[in-house]
Automatic annotation (TrEMBL):
This is Protein PIN-LIKES 2. Keywords: Auxin signaling pathway, Membrane, Transmembrane, Transmembrane helix. Signal peptide: none annotated. PANTHER family: PROTEIN PIN-LIKES 2 (PTHR31419). One of its GO terms (biological process) is endoplasmic reticulum to cytosol auxin transport. Pfam families: Mem_trans. It is a multi-pass membrane protein. The lineage of its organism: Eukaryota, Viridiplantae, Streptophyta, Embryophyta, Tracheophyta. The chain crosses the membrane at residues 12-31, 43-61, 73-95, 107-125, 145-164, 315-333, 345-368, 380-403, 415-434. GO terms for cellular component: membrane. It is found in: Membrane.
Length: 440
Protein backbone atom coordinates (compact mmCIF):
# COMPACT_ATOMS: atom_id res chain seq x y z
CA UNK A 1 0.00 0.00 0.00
CA UNK A 2 1.36 3.42 -0.95
CA UNK A 3 2.04 6.17 1.55
CA UNK A 4 0.22 9.50 1.38
CA UNK A 5 3.25 11.17 -0.14
CA UNK A 6 3.46 8.59 -2.91
CA UNK A 7 -0.27 8.97 -3.66
CA UNK A 8 0.12 12.72 -3.96
CA UNK A 9 3.15 12.31 -6.21
CA UNK A 10 1.31 9.82 -8.45
CA UNK A 11 -1.57 12.27 -8.82
CA UNK A 12 0.42 15.50 -9.23
CA UNK A 13 3.27 14.44 -11.57
CA UNK A 14 0.95 13.70 -14.56
CA UNK A 15 -0.56 17.17 -14.19
CA UNK A 16 2.91 18.71 -14.07
CA UNK A 17 3.69 16.96 -17.37
CA UNK A 18 0.62 18.51 -18.97
CA UNK A 19 1.49 21.87 -17.44
CA UNK A 20 4.99 21.69 -18.96
CA UNK A 21 3.52 21.08 -22.41
CA UNK A 22 1.07 23.94 -21.92
CA UNK A 23 3.85 26.34 -20.89
CA UNK A 24 5.85 25.39 -23.99
CA UNK A 25 2.81 26.18 -26.14
CA UNK A 26 2.31 29.47 -24.27
CA UNK A 27 5.91 30.52 -24.88
CA UNK A 28 5.79 29.56 -28.55
CA UNK A 29 2.62 31.60 -29.10
CA UNK A 30 3.35 34.54 -26.82
CA UNK A 31 2.82 37.83 -28.70
CA UNK A 32 6.17 39.25 -27.55
CA UNK A 33 8.18 36.23 -28.70
CA UNK A 34 6.11 35.33 -31.81
CA UNK A 35 8.09 32.15 -32.37
CA UNK A 36 5.11 30.49 -34.01
CA UNK A 37 2.35 32.51 -35.75
CA UNK A 38 -1.28 32.27 -34.73
CA UNK A 39 -2.19 30.61 -38.04
CA UNK A 40 0.02 27.65 -37.13
CA UNK A 41 -1.99 26.98 -33.99
CA UNK A 42 -5.19 27.14 -36.03
CA UNK A 43 -3.73 24.54 -38.37
CA UNK A 44 -2.73 22.41 -35.38
CA UNK A 45 -6.30 22.56 -34.05
CA UNK A 46 -7.57 21.29 -37.40
CA UNK A 47 -5.07 18.41 -37.33
CA UNK A 48 -6.20 17.45 -33.82
CA UNK A 49 -9.86 17.67 -34.77
CA UNK A 50 -9.68 15.87 -38.11
CA UNK A 51 -6.76 13.44 -37.68
CA UNK A 52 -5.07 12.90 -34.30
CA UNK A 53 -8.20 12.63 -32.12
CA UNK A 54 -10.14 10.34 -34.52
CA UNK A 55 -7.10 8.05 -34.81
CA UNK A 56 -6.77 7.85 -31.03
CA UNK A 57 -10.47 7.13 -30.53
CA UNK A 58 -10.58 4.44 -33.22
CA UNK A 59 -7.47 2.57 -32.06
CA UNK A 60 -8.27 2.62 -28.33
CA UNK A 61 -12.07 2.34 -28.34
CA UNK A 62 -12.10 -0.25 -31.12
CA UNK A 63 -9.67 -2.49 -29.26
CA UNK A 64 -11.42 -2.19 -25.88
CA UNK A 65 -15.09 -2.39 -26.76
CA UNK A 66 -17.20 -5.49 -27.27
CA UNK A 67 -20.96 -5.80 -27.45
CA UNK A 68 -21.02 -6.92 -23.81
CA UNK A 69 -18.87 -3.97 -22.76
CA UNK A 70 -21.09 -1.61 -24.70
CA UNK A 71 -24.04 -2.79 -22.61
CA UNK A 72 -22.09 -2.81 -19.33
CA UNK A 73 -20.91 0.78 -19.85
CA UNK A 74 -24.46 2.18 -19.97
CA UNK A 75 -23.90 4.40 -16.92
CA UNK A 76 -21.22 6.51 -18.67
CA UNK A 77 -23.66 8.47 -20.89
CA UNK A 78 -26.21 8.58 -18.05
CA UNK A 79 -23.56 10.14 -15.80
CA UNK A 80 -22.91 12.84 -18.42
CA UNK A 81 -26.61 13.77 -18.27
CA UNK A 82 -26.61 13.75 -14.47
CA UNK A 83 -23.46 15.89 -14.21
CA UNK A 84 -24.86 18.35 -16.74
CA UNK A 85 -28.19 18.59 -14.90
CA UNK A 86 -26.47 19.19 -11.57
CA UNK A 87 -24.18 21.75 -13.17
CA UNK A 88 -27.13 23.63 -14.63
CA UNK A 89 -28.84 23.66 -11.21
CA UNK A 90 -25.66 25.12 -9.74
CA UNK A 91 -25.69 27.66 -12.58
CA UNK A 92 -29.20 28.73 -11.60
CA UNK A 93 -27.97 29.11 -8.04
CA UNK A 94 -25.10 31.30 -9.27
CA UNK A 95 -27.62 33.47 -11.13
CA UNK A 96 -29.71 33.90 -7.96
CA UNK A 97 -26.74 34.64 -5.71
CA UNK A 98 -24.41 36.61 -8.00
CA UNK A 99 -27.06 38.44 -10.07
CA UNK A 100 -25.29 38.74 -13.44
CA UNK A 101 -26.62 41.19 -16.05
CA UNK A 102 -30.02 39.79 -17.15
CA UNK A 103 -28.83 39.12 -20.71
CA UNK A 104 -26.23 36.68 -19.31
CA UNK A 105 -28.53 34.53 -17.16
CA UNK A 106 -28.68 31.70 -19.72
CA UNK A 107 -24.97 32.06 -20.40
CA UNK A 108 -24.17 31.63 -16.69
CA UNK A 109 -26.21 28.42 -16.51
CA UNK A 110 -24.56 27.03 -19.65
CA UNK A 111 -20.99 27.78 -18.58
CA UNK A 112 -21.59 26.15 -15.20
CA UNK A 113 -23.42 23.09 -16.49
CA UNK A 114 -21.52 21.82 -19.53
CA UNK A 115 -18.03 20.47 -18.87
CA UNK A 116 -15.14 19.40 -21.05
CA UNK A 117 -15.63 15.65 -21.55
CA UNK A 118 -13.34 15.41 -24.58
CA UNK A 119 -9.81 16.57 -25.30
CA UNK A 120 -8.83 17.60 -21.77
CA UNK A 121 -10.13 14.37 -20.23
CA UNK A 122 -8.25 12.31 -22.81
CA UNK A 123 -5.07 14.30 -22.12
CA UNK A 124 -5.44 13.72 -18.37
CA UNK A 125 -5.99 9.99 -18.86
CA UNK A 126 -3.02 9.77 -21.24
CA UNK A 127 -0.72 11.55 -18.83
CA UNK A 128 -1.83 9.49 -15.82
CA UNK A 129 -1.40 6.23 -17.72
CA UNK A 130 2.05 7.26 -18.92
CA UNK A 131 3.33 6.72 -15.39
CA UNK A 132 4.33 3.13 -14.60
CA UNK A 133 3.03 3.38 -11.03
CA UNK A 134 -0.51 4.41 -12.01
CA UNK A 135 -3.26 2.62 -10.04
CA UNK A 136 -5.25 1.53 -13.10
CA UNK A 137 -3.33 -1.46 -14.41
CA UNK A 138 -1.77 -2.35 -17.75
CA UNK A 139 -4.91 -1.51 -19.79
CA UNK A 140 -5.09 1.95 -18.26
CA UNK A 141 -4.80 3.98 -21.47
CA UNK A 142 -7.03 1.92 -23.75
CA UNK A 143 -9.85 1.61 -21.23
CA UNK A 144 -9.59 5.26 -20.16
CA UNK A 145 -9.74 6.60 -23.72
CA UNK A 146 -12.60 4.21 -24.49
CA UNK A 147 -14.67 5.48 -21.56
CA UNK A 148 -14.00 9.14 -22.40
CA UNK A 149 -14.82 8.57 -26.09
CA UNK A 150 -18.15 7.03 -25.18
CA UNK A 151 -19.06 9.96 -22.96
CA UNK A 152 -18.30 12.41 -25.77
CA UNK A 153 -21.33 11.24 -27.74
CA UNK A 154 -23.86 12.53 -25.24
CA UNK A 155 -21.95 15.74 -24.59
CA UNK A 156 -21.70 16.58 -28.31
CA UNK A 157 -25.40 15.88 -28.88
CA UNK A 158 -26.31 18.19 -25.97
CA UNK A 159 -24.06 20.98 -27.26
CA UNK A 160 -25.31 20.87 -30.87
CA UNK A 161 -28.99 20.79 -29.80
CA UNK A 162 -29.78 22.20 -26.36
CA UNK A 163 -26.79 24.54 -25.95
CA UNK A 164 -27.07 25.80 -29.55
CA UNK A 165 -30.58 27.12 -28.90
CA UNK A 166 -29.88 28.30 -25.34
CA UNK A 167 -27.04 30.40 -26.76
CA UNK A 168 -29.23 32.42 -29.10
CA UNK A 169 -28.98 36.20 -28.56
CA UNK A 170 -31.63 37.64 -26.19
CA UNK A 171 -34.48 39.13 -28.18
CA UNK A 172 -34.70 42.32 -26.12
CA UNK A 173 -31.25 43.42 -27.32
CA UNK A 174 -32.23 43.45 -30.97
CA UNK A 175 -34.18 46.08 -32.86
CA UNK A 176 -36.24 45.15 -35.92
CA UNK A 177 -36.47 47.96 -38.50
CA UNK A 178 -38.88 48.44 -41.38
CA UNK A 179 -36.72 46.78 -43.99
CA UNK A 180 -36.69 43.58 -41.98
CA UNK A 181 -33.03 43.83 -41.10
CA UNK A 182 -31.67 43.59 -37.59
CA UNK A 183 -29.49 45.97 -35.64
CA UNK A 184 -27.95 44.88 -32.39
CA UNK A 185 -28.27 47.68 -29.84
CA UNK A 186 -24.98 47.16 -28.04
CA UNK A 187 -22.34 46.27 -30.58
CA UNK A 188 -21.72 44.06 -33.57
CA UNK A 189 -20.18 40.71 -32.77
CA UNK A 190 -18.73 40.57 -36.27
CA UNK A 191 -16.18 43.15 -35.15
CA UNK A 192 -14.79 40.76 -32.54
CA UNK A 193 -11.93 38.68 -33.88
CA UNK A 194 -12.36 35.05 -33.08
CA UNK A 195 -9.71 33.97 -30.55
CA UNK A 196 -8.12 30.54 -30.67
CA UNK A 197 -10.04 29.63 -27.53
CA UNK A 198 -13.37 29.61 -29.39
CA UNK A 199 -12.11 27.69 -32.42
CA UNK A 200 -10.08 24.94 -30.78
CA UNK A 201 -12.75 22.23 -30.84
CA UNK A 202 -14.64 23.39 -33.94
CA UNK A 203 -12.21 24.56 -36.64
CA UNK A 204 -13.76 26.39 -39.58
CA UNK A 205 -16.73 27.55 -37.54
CA UNK A 206 -17.08 30.64 -39.72
CA UNK A 207 -18.27 28.41 -42.57
CA UNK A 208 -21.18 27.08 -40.51
CA UNK A 209 -23.05 30.36 -40.08
CA UNK A 210 -26.59 30.58 -41.46
CA UNK A 211 -28.97 33.48 -41.88
CA UNK A 212 -30.49 32.77 -38.45
CA UNK A 213 -27.31 31.92 -36.52
CA UNK A 214 -26.95 35.34 -34.93
CA UNK A 215 -30.65 36.13 -34.48
CA UNK A 216 -33.14 35.42 -31.65
CA UNK A 217 -34.80 32.87 -33.91
CA UNK A 218 -36.71 30.74 -31.38
CA UNK A 219 -37.89 33.71 -29.34
CA UNK A 220 -39.36 35.38 -32.41
CA UNK A 221 -41.05 32.22 -33.65
CA UNK A 222 -42.76 31.41 -30.38
CA UNK A 223 -43.54 35.03 -29.63
CA UNK A 224 -45.52 35.04 -32.87
CA UNK A 225 -47.85 32.48 -31.29
CA UNK A 226 -48.88 34.91 -28.59
CA UNK A 227 -50.73 37.20 -30.95
CA UNK A 228 -48.01 39.27 -32.59
CA UNK A 229 -48.52 39.78 -36.28
CA UNK A 230 -46.29 37.63 -38.52
CA UNK A 231 -45.43 40.81 -40.44
CA UNK A 232 -43.38 41.98 -37.44
CA UNK A 233 -41.30 38.80 -37.48
CA UNK A 234 -39.17 38.95 -40.63
CA UNK A 235 -37.13 36.28 -42.37
CA UNK A 236 -38.62 33.28 -40.59
CA UNK A 237 -39.60 31.56 -43.83
CA UNK A 238 -42.66 30.03 -42.19
CA UNK A 239 -44.76 28.40 -44.91
CA UNK A 240 -48.44 29.23 -45.13
CA UNK A 241 -50.76 26.80 -43.43
CA UNK A 242 -52.96 26.31 -46.45
CA UNK A 243 -53.19 27.06 -50.15
CA UNK A 244 -55.35 26.39 -53.15
CA UNK A 245 -59.11 26.02 -53.11
CA UNK A 246 -59.39 23.62 -50.20
CA UNK A 247 -62.61 23.83 -48.25
CA UNK A 248 -62.55 25.35 -44.73
CA UNK A 249 -63.45 21.96 -43.24
CA UNK A 250 -60.51 20.17 -44.93
CA UNK A 251 -58.19 22.99 -43.84
CA UNK A 252 -59.27 22.56 -40.23
CA UNK A 253 -58.78 18.79 -40.39
CA UNK A 254 -55.48 18.65 -42.26
CA UNK A 255 -53.67 21.84 -41.27
CA UNK A 256 -50.65 21.37 -39.05
CA UNK A 257 -51.19 22.93 -35.60
CA UNK A 258 -49.41 26.24 -35.24
CA UNK A 259 -47.30 25.21 -32.23
CA UNK A 260 -46.31 21.92 -33.90
CA UNK A 261 -45.36 23.78 -37.05
CA UNK A 262 -43.07 26.12 -35.16
CA UNK A 263 -41.45 23.26 -33.25
CA UNK A 264 -40.77 21.59 -36.59
CA UNK A 265 -39.16 24.79 -37.93
CA UNK A 266 -36.93 25.01 -34.85
CA UNK A 267 -35.93 21.36 -35.30
CA UNK A 268 -35.01 22.05 -38.91
CA UNK A 269 -32.75 24.91 -37.75
CA UNK A 270 -30.98 22.70 -35.19
CA UNK A 271 -27.46 21.83 -36.46
CA UNK A 272 -27.80 18.15 -35.58
CA UNK A 273 -25.88 17.28 -38.76
CA UNK A 274 -22.71 18.74 -37.21
CA UNK A 275 -22.67 15.86 -34.72
CA UNK A 276 -21.16 13.66 -37.45
CA UNK A 277 -17.70 15.19 -37.16
CA UNK A 278 -14.46 13.15 -37.54
CA UNK A 279 -14.19 12.25 -33.80
CA UNK A 280 -17.79 11.03 -33.57
CA UNK A 281 -17.50 9.14 -36.87
CA UNK A 282 -14.36 7.45 -35.50
CA UNK A 283 -16.30 6.51 -32.34
CA UNK A 284 -19.15 5.06 -34.39
CA UNK A 285 -16.79 3.01 -36.55
CA UNK A 286 -14.90 1.78 -33.48
CA UNK A 287 -18.14 0.67 -31.78
CA UNK A 288 -19.34 -1.15 -34.90
CA UNK A 289 -16.02 -2.87 -35.61
CA UNK A 290 -15.33 -3.66 -31.96
CA UNK A 291 -18.79 -5.17 -31.44
CA UNK A 292 -18.50 -7.55 -34.39
CA UNK A 293 -15.81 -10.20 -33.68
CA UNK A 294 -15.18 -10.94 -37.38
CA UNK A 295 -14.52 -7.28 -38.14
CA UNK A 296 -12.49 -6.76 -35.00
CA UNK A 297 -10.20 -9.63 -35.95
CA UNK A 298 -9.27 -7.76 -39.14
CA UNK A 299 -7.97 -4.66 -37.33
CA UNK A 300 -6.93 -5.72 -33.84
CA UNK A 301 -4.79 -8.54 -32.49
CA UNK A 302 -1.31 -9.82 -33.27
CA UNK A 303 -2.58 -11.89 -36.23
CA UNK A 304 -4.87 -9.22 -37.73
CA UNK A 305 -4.52 -9.13 -41.58
CA UNK A 306 -4.52 -5.33 -41.75
CA UNK A 307 -2.82 -4.64 -38.44
CA UNK A 308 -0.40 -2.33 -40.27
CA UNK A 309 -3.26 0.14 -40.81
CA UNK A 310 -4.14 0.11 -37.11
CA UNK A 311 -0.47 0.56 -36.20
CA UNK A 312 -0.20 3.53 -38.57
CA UNK A 313 -3.26 5.15 -36.97
CA UNK A 314 -1.77 4.49 -33.54
CA UNK A 315 1.42 6.34 -34.51
CA UNK A 316 -0.66 9.35 -35.54
CA UNK A 317 -2.71 9.08 -32.34
CA UNK A 318 0.48 9.55 -30.32
CA UNK A 319 0.51 13.21 -31.37
CA UNK A 320 -2.90 13.87 -29.81
CA UNK A 321 -2.00 14.72 -26.19
CA UNK A 322 1.05 16.95 -26.84
CA UNK A 323 -0.80 18.76 -29.64
CA UNK A 324 -3.82 19.46 -27.42
CA UNK A 325 -1.69 20.86 -24.61
CA UNK A 326 0.45 22.96 -26.96
CA UNK A 327 -2.76 24.31 -28.45
CA UNK A 328 -4.12 25.10 -24.98
CA UNK A 329 -0.93 27.01 -24.23
CA UNK A 330 -1.36 28.95 -27.45
CA UNK A 331 -4.91 29.84 -26.47
CA UNK A 332 -3.91 30.97 -23.00
CA UNK A 333 -1.13 33.12 -24.48
CA UNK A 334 -3.81 35.38 -25.96
CA UNK A 335 -5.04 36.23 -22.48
CA UNK A 336 -8.66 36.84 -21.46
CA UNK A 337 -10.96 39.06 -23.47
CA UNK A 338 -12.76 41.98 -21.86
CA UNK A 339 -15.92 40.79 -20.16
CA UNK A 340 -19.05 42.57 -18.96
CA UNK A 341 -20.17 39.52 -16.99
CA UNK A 342 -18.93 40.93 -13.69
CA UNK A 343 -16.27 39.72 -11.25
CA UNK A 344 -18.77 38.26 -8.79
CA UNK A 345 -20.47 36.12 -11.44
CA UNK A 346 -17.14 35.01 -12.90
CA UNK A 347 -15.97 33.85 -9.48
CA UNK A 348 -19.35 32.20 -8.88
CA UNK A 349 -19.11 30.15 -12.08
CA UNK A 350 -15.53 29.08 -11.33
CA UNK A 351 -16.32 28.06 -7.75
CA UNK A 352 -19.51 26.20 -8.72
CA UNK A 353 -17.93 24.38 -11.67
CA UNK A 354 -14.49 23.56 -10.27
CA UNK A 355 -15.07 23.20 -6.52
CA UNK A 356 -18.72 22.48 -5.69
CA UNK A 357 -19.74 20.20 -8.57
CA UNK A 358 -16.93 17.66 -7.95
CA UNK A 359 -18.17 17.23 -4.35
CA UNK A 360 -21.65 16.44 -5.65
CA UNK A 361 -20.07 14.08 -8.18
CA UNK A 362 -18.38 12.08 -5.44
CA UNK A 363 -21.78 11.56 -3.82
CA UNK A 364 -23.44 10.55 -7.10
CA UNK A 365 -20.72 8.04 -8.02
CA UNK A 366 -20.63 6.56 -4.50
CA UNK A 367 -24.42 6.13 -4.54
CA UNK A 368 -24.24 4.56 -8.00
CA UNK A 369 -21.67 2.08 -6.74
CA UNK A 370 -23.96 1.13 -3.84
CA UNK A 371 -26.76 0.53 -6.37
CA UNK A 372 -24.44 -1.68 -8.48
CA UNK A 373 -24.61 0.61 -11.53
CA UNK A 374 -20.85 0.56 -12.06
CA UNK A 375 -18.47 -1.96 -13.64
CA UNK A 376 -16.99 -4.09 -10.87
CA UNK A 377 -13.29 -3.89 -9.99
CA UNK A 378 -12.53 -1.20 -12.55
CA UNK A 379 -10.99 1.91 -10.93
CA UNK A 380 -10.58 3.64 -14.30
CA UNK A 381 -14.34 3.42 -14.90
CA UNK A 382 -14.94 5.19 -11.59
CA UNK A 383 -12.19 7.74 -12.24
CA UNK A 384 -13.64 8.77 -15.62
CA UNK A 385 -17.09 9.16 -14.04
CA UNK A 386 -15.62 11.43 -11.35
CA UNK A 387 -13.64 13.35 -13.97
CA UNK A 388 -16.86 14.33 -15.73
CA UNK A 389 -17.72 16.47 -12.69
CA UNK A 390 -14.24 17.99 -12.36
CA UNK A 391 -13.17 19.45 -15.70
CA UNK A 392 -13.70 23.13 -16.62
CA UNK A 393 -16.38 24.22 -19.06
CA UNK A 394 -16.23 22.76 -22.57
CA UNK A 395 -14.14 24.82 -25.00
CA UNK A 396 -16.78 23.97 -27.61
CA UNK A 397 -19.08 26.41 -25.79
CA UNK A 398 -16.85 29.22 -27.01
CA UNK A 399 -17.37 28.06 -30.59
CA UNK A 400 -21.15 27.99 -30.13
CA UNK A 401 -21.04 31.48 -28.60
CA UNK A 402 -19.12 32.72 -31.62
CA UNK A 403 -21.52 31.03 -34.03
CA UNK A 404 -24.57 32.54 -32.30
CA UNK A 405 -23.00 35.95 -31.72
CA UNK A 406 -23.88 35.80 -28.02
CA UNK A 407 -21.45 36.57 -25.16
CA UNK A 408 -18.39 35.87 -27.34
CA UNK A 409 -15.86 37.85 -25.30
CA UNK A 410 -17.47 36.69 -22.04
CA UNK A 411 -17.13 33.06 -23.12
CA UNK A 412 -13.48 33.58 -24.01
CA UNK A 413 -12.79 35.24 -20.64
CA UNK A 414 -14.53 32.64 -18.50
CA UNK A 415 -12.90 29.76 -20.40
CA UNK A 416 -9.50 31.37 -19.90
CA UNK A 417 -9.89 31.81 -16.16
CA UNK A 418 -11.48 28.39 -15.67
CA UNK A 419 -8.57 26.64 -17.37
CA UNK A 420 -6.07 28.63 -15.30
CA UNK A 421 -7.72 27.73 -11.98
CA UNK A 422 -8.45 24.16 -13.14
CA UNK A 423 -4.75 23.40 -12.66
CA UNK A 424 -5.22 23.77 -8.89
CA UNK A 425 -8.69 22.23 -8.61
CA UNK A 426 -7.74 19.21 -10.70
CA UNK A 427 -4.62 18.67 -8.59
CA UNK A 428 -6.72 18.73 -5.43
CA UNK A 429 -9.47 16.44 -6.63
CA UNK A 430 -7.28 13.91 -8.40
CA UNK A 431 -5.46 13.38 -5.10
CA UNK A 432 -8.86 12.96 -3.40
CA UNK A 433 -10.05 10.57 -6.13
CA UNK A 434 -6.96 8.40 -5.78
CA UNK A 435 -7.69 8.11 -2.06
CA UNK A 436 -11.37 7.32 -2.68
CA UNK A 437 -10.56 4.58 -5.20
CA UNK A 438 -9.24 2.57 -2.27
CA UNK A 439 -12.70 2.58 -0.67
CA UNK A 440 -15.26 2.74 -3.49
Amino acid sequence: MKSSGEDIRTAIVPLLKLLSLTIIGLLLAHPKLQMIPRATFKLLSKLVFALFLPCLIFTELGESITFKNFVDWWFIPVNVLVSTALGCLLGLLVVVICRPPPRFNRFTVIMTGFGNTGNLSIALVGSLCHSKDNPFGKHCHSSGVAYVSLSQWVAVILVYTLVYHMMEPPMEYYEVVDEGTEIEEIRSVNDISRPLLVEAEWPGIEDKETEHSKTPFIARIFKSISGISPATIPDLNIPPESSGNSSPRSIRCLAEPRVVRRIRIVAEQTPIRYILQPPTIASLLAIIIGSVPQLKALFFGDDAPILFITDSLEILAGAMVPSVMLMLGGMLAEGPDESTLGLRTTIGIIVARLLVLPILGIGIVALSDKLNFLVENDPMFIFVLLLQYTTPSAILLGAIASLRGYAVSEASAILFWQHVFALFSLSLYIVIYFKLLLYI
